[in-house]
Amino acid sequence: METMRLDKFLKVSRIIKRRTLAKEVADQGRVFVNGQQAKASTNVKAGDELTIRLGQKIIKVRVESLQESTRKEDAASLYSVLSEEKIEE
């Protein structure tokens, strides 16, 4: 089964626009893969569930497929959003 680094998947899928930012978010402990805290180097595969905290919201997505690169309009097909919630502070 194919795997891809978490930071690269976040960039290719355009959930996070830049890979350096994706790496920072992961290294700050704000990304979970299948409920486990993940580092930027964690491998993800199709079927994995990612929970990502970005600013004031938490997004849950399922990895649908992996591609080395993708066009902007196809990026959303790499994952499906399971839930999105705002955090009240």
Tell me what you see in this structure.
The chain has 89 residues and is α+β, with helices and mostly antiparallel strands. It has helices spanning 6-12, 19-27; strands spanning 4-5, 31-33, 36-37, 43-44, 49-54, 57-63, 79-86. Strands 3-2-5-6-7 form a five-stranded antiparallel beta sheet. Strands 1-4 form a two-stranded antiparallel sheet. Helix 1 packs across helix 2 (19-27). The chain is globular. The N and C termini lie far apart (40 Å). The mean pLDDT is 94. GO terms for molecular function: ribosomal large subunit binding; rRNA binding; tRNA binding. Keywords: Protein biosynthesis, RNA-binding, rRNA-binding, tRNA-binding.
CATH topology: Structural Genomics Hypothetical 15.5 Kd Protein In mrcA-pckA Intergenic Region, Chain A
Mean of residue pLDDT?
94
Please state how the strands of the largest beta sheet are arranged side by side: 3-2-5-6-7
What fraction of the residues are assigned to beta strands by DSSP? 25-35%
Percentage of residues assigned to helices: 10-25%
Oligomer: single chain
Main pleated-sheet profile = 5 strands, antiparallel
Query: What is the end-to-end distance?
Result: 40 Å
Supply the helix-strand structural class. alpha+beta
CATH H level, superfamily name:
RNA-binding S4 domain
CA-based shape: globular
Q: What would CATH call the architecture?
A: Roll
